[in-house]
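# nightly structure sweep
# worker-07 picked up a monomer target from the shared queue
# config: single-sequence mode, recycle default, output format = structure tokens
# input follows
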Amino acid sequence: MIKNNDSLVILVGRPNVGKSTIFNKILGGSHALTSKISGTTLDLNIKPASYNGVNFFVSDSGGFNLYSSSETPSPLRLLEKKVRERVFNYAKKAKVILFVVDFKNGMIPEDKEIYLHLIKNITQAQGGKGGAIILVINKVDSLKNIENAYVEFSSLGIKKAIAISAENGFGIDDLLEQIAKKIKGPDTSNTNKRSMDIYENNLKIAIVGRPGSGKSTFINSIIREDLLFTDEKPGTTRDSIDTYLKYKNQIITIIDTSGIRKKSKLDIYSEGFQKQSLNQIKRADVIIVFIDITAGITHDDLSLLKMINLEKKPFIVAFTKWDLRNENIQVSELKKDIKLRLKEFSETPFIFISSKTNKNLNRLIDLSVEINDAKKVKIKTKDVNKFIIDSKSSEKRGRLFKYIAYGAQKAGENIPTFIFFTNNKGKIFGMEDIKHLRSSIRDYFEIKTNVEVLIEYKKYSA
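# output follows
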């Protein structure tokens, strides 16, 4: 959660002046989705960064127009208004504001208007002293145009200006040097060392689900701050956003992914957004799958669960909007129906939540921590083989284990993975058998996360 005393650096400017490209260059990678379509960035994408030992948060804000066109549909005008308010509110908290303009388009009246609004909003911020404003003149692709760029925007009256070409990387290190100086002071050494993603080793929880399942609203509720842009229209979250939550003396990274959906002919960027969501799933430690309880379990939900299962990631199913459920349905009946519908994921932990009433929100984070700890379990080979011996004599488990000679835990996997060896070529282990083996080993060792079981034929002597 970003507080006033944190070192927040925010990029502000009209749509398509290159804020997301600058954001990516500062971080040293592609973290914000860039596009030639105005308004691709709707959320405040906030990530930790470091330069020359100076740590700070950098935020890529949505591009906005101060005044909506009369031809703009009413819902979109409301959307633009919310984006404007969000940007100016966070500019009040920022230590450094990077006001980005476009040299190729030149100075236009709206640049001046936005700057004046910035000044008005930050004048009374931070105890009467607002953040420092740096004018970033982007798309200066030639050294000979640097002086022209400064002259073009001199009427703004901003004392500190830097000409850059974010696309080519020109001027980015100079910009980082100025950011570091504003945050720490003028004694920052010029060692040109950059260290990004300083929280990358924290527990990372990815929130995934279909559009409108309540992912952003959950994050806003759990951090008790309206950080992400949420809207009742599905698909509002375009980028995958990292939120850093201090929870019970540890920092947790919560990744809000784009709503995963089938490719739509009406949304030409849906494939790109979906690919980015899948990439975030791969980098997460624990996945929480959001399913709207009012809509029920859909084919898309099951497809998403299967995809996550293939990635061998520990996951939880969270049924959202509990406050809107049909109150005539008993919880016991609902749980029974869910296990029937989920079928092959019946061993997966699930929980009912409501972001509106804060039902089970902290419990969901606690469960994520428990599952992350559980996936690190190390079972000694002798204990795995004792489990096999005990299972052979069990009426419940003995049917399958008579074909298994010995086993061991396989190292280096995302979830606890066990390999069992058999010398019986005639026995074919089907999916139901594998699920039975998974359930047995989970119950025996009281493992709280999903596990994987592999069967391998190996000739051995009795």
